[in-house]
């Protein structure tokens, strides 16, 4: 069984935006999603242990220090990126770019291999920042996304989620094979739709990355990789991703 391409570590819980199509905001179980609207950090010791374990099992992909959050709200971010580098990995983030300033850019530049900036503000500010942000970086690759419509998620109010799920339910799902995700609570989550931990996959470091990936995760990935495998779980049956 192959290793993941990405190790996603959600270093902080919060996000400054409340986009209605983001699963953080559209998720109907507000108690389950509550932690993402309070300030929580993934402990640096847990991040170090994840990097150590990733190296021990031969992982050679990228480390993404973001997930369902706004990573630049974490004041530790430049130091965490350098920590990732110290273990021989390249660090990446996805950000809305709202907090990028010349001072922050100087700290992030060179610490990250690539920063993907998706801009959600209105014009003309959007175009102005799209042109300005890359000028702040000399070493880090900056990818600017200005077409900032969200993709469909389970509870998105903008899409025919039920209709899409019916159309795709017999399709294999490759999402769980792409990344190993540890959220700010230390939970393993299966994919980008599994924001609150629907599959009881365990918590890191009580469950090691190796035991998770080649254990329960492997069983689930094998099921979902087959045509019709989404019928294994009601949450997967309701997924609007092709």
Explain this structure.
This protein is 30% helix and 12% strand. The chain has helices at 23-26, 44-56, 77-86, 102-108, 125-132, 161-168, 175-178, 209-214, 216-224, 234-237, and strands at 6-9, 62-64, 91-95, 114-118, 141-145, 179-182, 188-189. Strands 5-4-3-2-1-6-7 form a 7-stranded mixed beta sheet. Strand 2, helix 3 (77-86) and strand 3 form a beta-alpha-beta unit. The longest helix has 13 residues, at 44-56. It starts with 5 loop residues before the first strand and ends in a 5-residue tail after the last helix.
Characteristics:
242 residues, alpha/beta
Short description:
This protein is 30% helix and 12% strand. The protein has 242 residues and is an alpha/beta fold.
* Radius of gyration, CA atoms, in whole angstroms: 18 Å
Span between N and C termini? 23 Å
Strand order of the largest sheet: 5-4-3-2-1-6-7
Specify the structural class.
alpha/beta
SSE succession: EHHEHEHEHEHHEEHHH
Q: Unreliable stretches, pLDDT < 50, 5 or more residues?
A: none
Largest sheet: 7 strands, mixed
Mean pLDDT: 96
Number of helical segments with 4 or more residues: 10
* Global shape: globular
How many strands appear in the DSSP assignment?
A: 7
What oligomeric state do the depicted chains represent?
Answer: single chain
